[in-house]
From TrEMBL, chains A, B:
Serine hydrolase involved in the detoxification of formaldehyde. This is S-formylglutathione hydrolase. The active site is at S154 (charge relay system), D231 (charge relay system), H266 (charge relay system). PANTHER family: S-FORMYLGLUTATHIONE HYDROLASE. Its EC number is 3.1.2.12. NCBIfam families: fghA_ester_D. InterPro entries: AB_hydrolase_fold (IPR029058), Esterase-like (IPR000801), S-formylglutathione_hydrol (IPR014186). Its main location: cytoplasm. Keywords: Cytoplasm, Hydrolase, Serine esterase. It is found in: Cytoplasm.
Length: 287, 287
């Protein structure tokens, strides 16, 4: 589980590391970024907790590292931030690079069951198991593997919600920006699940749908979700946070906080504005 | 002096406006961004001061708007931020797009005197006169034309320092990130001044060299400069802040604060980290 360091960049008193490793689950070299806050470099200091940020369609690890402003809050709280990539790269599957919303850059944080994508498109296993195991081993003296939270944007918000809901206790908290909360009922999700699971595999679809998963959740959820009212994808019905809220309410799930931010759009300008709030939310459960 | 609005983006409680206008000084349509903080939208509220951020080589108005995080501090202080472009665009001058460090994206904030660049490469007049006049007219009810400060990065740091030093009283304060402080003695500056002024026009070169200009400055300067010790362009002798510091010291100029930030590089990760400090520096003189 060797990790290659491509770059070390000073950021908010800590270090933004550009890293890569050969991943078994995806069958290719995977790039990722890791922000280590200043507290991680205090000799004899305590290990820092980890916040995983899952990116949206078309993104790599770099977009949010550069534009998301998570390092600002993470440096103050003493939280490491892991920025994974959004899919395998260069597997050579015919058509995998043809669309922005399916294939490369659009792994949807699932393990594909349908050929040819079942060969390598295993972002669920990669994000829940292989990548964190690799990071915890490589940074064992700096990162506390027992304190991990998760967040994400759009497709990555779907990833954060579904990974949290499918793995009770694995993550200390969850939050999301403009998440796809009901993929089985929106064009993006239907296209992805059809391609990765097959049209008839509806049970599998529901296993990766936050609105379906929340119906079975036990206890409080304590999730923070920000959705911009100026977000065109929200207006187009790709995100459907109302469906998630309704399902949570009907299941009597407490702690679901959805903030509709006036005029904010789907871009990183929105993440930058509210990143501190999401780091603060994670910090409440990580410390 | 009509301004066209291309986009209005919510950011840190205010609005990031993507704008353009047909500029006489450059003879082309010029794009620029303007951040209006929340305080600018308080009905019956006071006008807000303006901080001009000059970008570096290859950049447009968007780079720092997305990655610099000036909006974070500006939204708290109540300061508008103007992000101009770095050169005329599309003038059709042969070779203007051939190099990253000369021509388009590399106007160096001077008025060229040498053909063919004397046709339109007038970024000094554009930044000191035409653009602010356009902004003050279009946003007369929101921006206070009497309170303007200036900052910038690399080539834009050169711009901020030289525009401030050439125009006593025009700007309330100046700061810079990794500025080119002695262009007549570094490869970037020599190439630019040779192309815009001609090799023999040494007096003109000195008129746009911060290290030469500071020798003639009267009174305190109160400038904040951040330079990263991991900045490859600093290591290569493109920035030469020591020359500027020495000239200021020999001229007994007070208030020159140069901070050498350990390991920080030439990228926007550095601006993001210290943007709040530079907004705070400007706020001291704008309020």
């Amino acid at each position: 589980m060797a990790v290659t360091t491509k770059a070390t960049i000073a950021s908010f008193g800590g270090k933004l590391l550009k890293l890569s490793h050969n991943a078994k689950t995806t069958g290719c070299e995977m790039s990722f970024n890791l922000y280590l806050p200043p507290q991680a470099f205090v000799s004899g200091g305590q290990k820092v907790p980890l916040l995983i940020y899952l990116s949206g369609l078309t993104c790599t690890a770099d977009n949010c590292s550069e534009k998301g402003f998570f390092q600002h809050g993470a440096s103050k709280k003493g939280i490491a931030v892991l920025y994974p990539d959004t899919s395998p790269r260069g597997l050579g599957i015919q058509g995998e690079d043809d669309a922005y919303d399916f294939g490369s850059g659009a792994g949807f944080y699932v393990d594909a069951t349908l050929p040819p994508y079942d060969k390598g498109y295993n972002m669920y296993s990669y994000i829940t198991e292989e990548l964190p195991a690799t990071v915890f081993e490589a940074f064992a003296s700096q990162i506390d593997r027992e304190r991990v939270s998760i967040t994400g944007h759009s497709m990555g918000g779907h990833g954060a919600l579904t990974l949290f809901l499918r793995n009770p206790g694995k993550y200390k908290s969850v939050s999301a920006f403009a998440p796809i909360t009901n993929p089985i009922n929106c064009p993006w999700g239907q296209k992805a699940f059809k391609g990765y699971f097959g049209e008839d595999n509806q049970e599998k679809w529901k296993e990766h749908d936050a609105t379906e998963l929340v119906k079975k959740w036990k206890g409080p959820l304590n999730v923070l979700i920000d959705v911009g009212t100026g977000d065109n994808f929200y207006k187009q019905g790709q995100l459907l946070p109302e469906n998630f809220a309704k399902a949570a309410q009907e299941a009597d799930i407490k702690g679901v906080q959805i903030r509709y931010q006036p005029d904010y759009d789907h871009s990183y300008y929105t993440m930058a504005t509210f990143a501190d709030d999401h780091v603060e939310h994670a910090a409440k459960y990580l410390f």
